[in-house]
What does this fold into?
Amino acid sequence: MAFNNLLNLGKNKQNQTEAFLALEINEDYVKAAVWMVQEGQIKVIKTSEIVAIENENIESLLQSVDMAIATACQDVSFNPEKTIFGIMHDWVDQEGIVPDKKEILKYLSQKLELKPIGYVILEEALVTYLQKQQSTPPTAILIRFSQSELLLTLVELGNIVLQEKVGRSEDLVSDVNEGLKRFADADPLPSRIILYNCNTNFEEIKQRLLAFDWEKDLPFLHTPKIESLEMKQSIKAVAIAGGSEVAKSMGFAIEEEKPVEQTNEPAEEVKTQEQLPEGFVVGQQLDLEKEETKAEELESLIVTTQNEAVISSKQPNKTGIMLAKFKAFLSK
It folds into this structure.
């Protein structure tokens, strides 16, 4: 079946107003955003509070996702269901989303009445987002912080070349140095380092990193410039980079040449699950008919069949985005 035939609901979509969700899930936090297509551009209407995942069980994740969505949708006149997921790179293999992570997304979607329309790898979304911001493919080393580890991503001209994980210790400089030494085939290393996803004082970390002599043992041509992104840049990246591809697939006219715009950015603060808005119910049980329908829709998204149409499932497209498999439920 031709891919365009699966998406015939998207015809003339550019003349309609529809809100969507972007949902980022990483090791420690959940973030959400409401986005729309306006005047040929992806506009982030509002981002959520940054919600900490307090335990490793599925119910804790459900509560965090629920709260992130609630704060993203608070004070806006939309209640979107169609959702792009931003997921970590190790949630995906050559066949797509790995089976245990499929079950997590299925559970979240059923409990929270979400309609998955695609997914994007967080680092690929961030690279595309940076390219849109600076109007040129980035060459840099991205370093993602979590409580237990660092993820170092080597990017050359907008392409992810290598990734390495390093356990996090009290000595962050040594951790970063260890990770960079694993990029043995990269000579020289990009003289730009971008830190992100850390709920701490990046200025202190940057000063510690700048004080280290990186050129002594590593193939930098000169002392690297060290930058940092605020915590909500990654969820904006999921919405803007992933949303652009999904919106085009659904029939929206997207104008790539215009600058990215975001609005209504709330103050940055990490929330706990106990701080849910008054009257908000976590994981409200769906009625049987709705739950069966959404289960079928989710299976259409994440279960491989011969009738699927795939957007860039193994090779990156020109934006570097990997999107989920779509199926005929988009044409219903």
The chain has two domains: 3-126+232-331, 134-228.
